[in-house]
Amino acid sequence: MQRYLITMLVLLGVVFFLENNSFARGPHFQMRGMERFDELDTDQDGKISKEEHMTKCEKCFEAMDTNDDGYVTKEECREAWENRMESVKEAKQKGVEDIKEKGSFKKQ
Questions:
Q1: How confident is the model over 2-33, as pLDDT tens digits?
Q2: Residue 10, in any domain of the structure
Q3: 8-state DSSP, 22
Q4: Which domain holds residue 79?
Q5: Phi/psi of residue 48, nearest 5 degrees
């Protein structure tokens, strides 16, 4: 019983490590994060202001609000997420390394 518990704890530790470690996500994971940071840092001062962040949020909101009523319904959110995941899947299948353009929220 004790051996079983130790084995389970080790397996859970490995799963936790793989889920939360950028090394396990691939060599370009951190680089993509820095590219995204640079995209948000529009004035290139090395910091993301609330205004810079909110500009990106507004663009995503506007893309998800497909009927332009100023609200995002659960259906619009689900549809936008499904479209994004499909775009990412297609990009990966084509071997596209940089999927930021394909994977962004866009009105259909």
A1: 676 577 666 666 555 555 554 445 555 555 67
A2: no
A3: G
A4: 59-108
A5: -105, 115
